Amino acid sequence: MSIHVNGLIVLMLVILYFITVLMMRIIGNKFSSLEEIYTRNNKRLATVLSLVDHSFEGTFDSLREIKEIKQNLIMEDLEQHLQSKELIKIEKIEIRKLKSISKTRRKEACTYLGLIGSENARMALESALMHEKDYSVKIYISNALTDIRNPKSIEVMTKALIGTHKWYRTKAISNILEFGYLVQPYLLALYETNDIELIELNLKYAAENFNEDTKRYLFRFVDDYETKYKALKAYYLEQIKSNKTKYRISYLDEDFNKLLTLSCKTLSNYYFIDFSEAKYYENDHVIIKNNAFWALSKVNRTEHFKILLAHLNEADFEKTLIAVITKMIEHNPRFLYILEESFFAESNMDIKKRMAQIFSNKIEYYILKLNSKHPHYAKEILGEIILNGKINELIGFMNLNRDFDLENMLIEILKERVDPESQIGLELRRYLNRRIIEKWGTEPFELNKISEVHLKDKKLAKVVLMFTLIGFLAYPLLFFIKYSNEIGVVGTRLFLKKYVIGFNYILAYYSVAINISYLILMCFSYANVRKQAKLWNFKNISMLFRHKMIPSISIIAPAFNEEKSIVSSVRSLLNLKYPDYELIVVNDGSNDETLRRLIEAFKLIRVDYQYQISLDTVPIRGIYRNASLPKLVVIDKNNGGKADALNAGINVANKEFFCGIDADSLLEPESLLRLASLTIDESKETPALGGNVCPINSCKVDQGLITEVVLSKNILARFQTIEYIRAFMAGRLGWQQMNSLLIISGAFGLFRKDRVISVGGYLTTRGKYKKDTVGEDMEIVVRISRMMREINHSYKILYAFNANCWTEVPEDLKSLKNQRFRWHRGLIDILYFHRKMMFNRRYGSTGIFVLPYYLIFEAFGPMIEMQGYVMVVLAAILGILDEKIALLLFITTILLGVLVSITALLIAEREEHYYRFMDVMKMLFYAILENFGVRQLVSFWRIEGQFNLMLGQSGWGKIKRKGIES
Fold it and tell me: Which Gene3D superfamilies does this one have (predicted)?
């Protein structure tokens, strides 16, 4: 036995030792309660709580609701605790920590000093607020001062606003406004200020506190906006000239317009009678005039309705006027008759088109009027609606209608008014039932199979073919070139032996490289989990629920044939713990009972719903709501795929961010809160955030809530549980720590709506790029990253280890195989589509490291693995698999793989107890077992998916689901 073999044995024993130690750590961690873990990781926090509040016993609930505990204390009792020597000692330490190099330590100090709330703590925080440069730390200081709630802090917090970034300013102003009426004396003295940050504070205070002073200030600001703008411009030019500010004068127009919009919206919403005077709706400024129209619509008078109708000739205000007139008609249907009279008296076709858009919200009413005594009025209006392109509801009505007289009259209108070859005609021919189309006298329209999309797919197939040939032929070609002089000289067996052994070494080197990469990522993941857990404990509920502290969210849940689980999922999503969100369920042309179950369970009715079409999608057939469930919106649309459904949801969404989630998934009540709370810790823009995805198979669910987490009884689901933990805990947490995260799971992702719209939404054949992809979750993140790099805008994509989404994973081989097919095809498609970024320094770490990593280890990897395993088997058959190679391959491909999986499991279970003790023991067993065949099978499937892509088979593949049942 040579020294090399001995060295390998020692290495194997060392790795086995580490695996054993990690397993013991996991087992030991299971015997610690969650309270012990949180207290252990936050000893000082527990000490402060026990001193400030004698009822604190180190429980998790107390950590989360600290503000409420402090507010319930008797003030004399609190003062007594604040005099304790131990608390004074901690106070001094935390005051010194405010100057720490570490941002996390400074945030920690803010939390403790906010809890202590003494005079010294307040003064130290106020001083730190004026000197702190990092906005994410600054907001922690602002929150701590708000918790202390001493009116003396208002002046300092107000001064600290000057010259700050919008991200901080928005949140800090919300904190100042928490002081309520105590703020007004300070603001009255600032009414003449020219600092734009203080003007914003004044206006936001006036928007929430209604009295004569604030009303007078709002009207004065709007009435004298030109004078105020000139004064601001002169002030900032002087400030810039004397180097007293970093404010850019180029921002002034945008900032001033936002302030004017805020003022006008407040006046329109709360002082609409005064704001509906002619001097406002006839004003030259677009913002003032626009909001004055809204003010007019809030007064239910005929003269106001006629004023709005008279302005329909103004193209610049088309959208606003259509929206306000529609709203007035909803509140008072008799205005519809006035609109009809104006429509038939109008000769201007542009104005008639705008009227037709208003009528389109009542399309079913006019369809039913075809059966009245005077159908010609309805026919004329319907014809104009159709020519105006408002046909989605018409399609939905005609496909479901069983009244053949109505059907015949509608077909007559189509024959008279619509050219079957026009864009509207093609749309109708594509989505109307075949029987109706034939009665119309034309044929159904199908998209041309030989389209640009398919031509691009052919190009991709050629690239994949070349890529595959390189993957399989690179080593043989290089080997034969290197040893060409030995061909015919040495024996065939010896030559083959050299070839096989050489490739075995390549497999070993590859395995070392990929597993070392995983272990490095896990080091970053471990640090990230510790930091995230600590920062999460610093955030109390009152902080997170403050206005504008975390973004408003539209949850978009695409659903296709989800009748088994849709009601449970929606109930779960309606019970989330989050301050400002809405739920948009998109029924993507389901042919089962999905829509009916939603309508019956939540008592939904079809409504006229106004929304902005920012992304092109297949037709929406209807929108359903229930007035008693204002958070819920259900969209019914023709089938267009998940990406198209998400785009439709984005069009309807009203919030700042949207959360894409699979309709067959469940979120824990605090998941959205945990995910969005990451935005507080980053002063950079966060255009995308991702959460943890866990298998729900075999878990117990009651009314949309998970009551017990258990490991699935299905063997395939158990292997996937290990795989998910490894992928999320090792990969995504690690990449996020290096600011290089490119994958956010489609099951649970959070995105800035405006950024997604600006890049063209999710890829579909109807969209900006005329292209589909099966990997839309990764592709949208790559495209956002690409855009942010191209506009040179600083950003960070985040991932929350403790924000959990539970989803069903495949339990049969065929479904799992189809899933892995499309995952690998999606990856290759994305790498090809964004090939410009590869090895391109312009795209920073994304172009230089991350995309090449995916190309080498994720795309090329399966081909190297499969060839390697074939060579191992061949070496065994030929009897040339010696001890050294066998040990090397065992260590690199098996032991390191086990080490990676066990490490990921330790990270996952360190801060949160997801599974029971016996389940964790089983997972340890499966973490070892998956390296003996399962991983290899998945690699084989990925190669098979690659070959399918070359053959043009790029569909999703069917995945069998049981559904989530309560």
Answer: Leucine-rich Repeat Variant (1.25.10.10), Spore Coat Polysaccharide Biosynthesis Protein SpsA, Chain A (3.90.550.10)
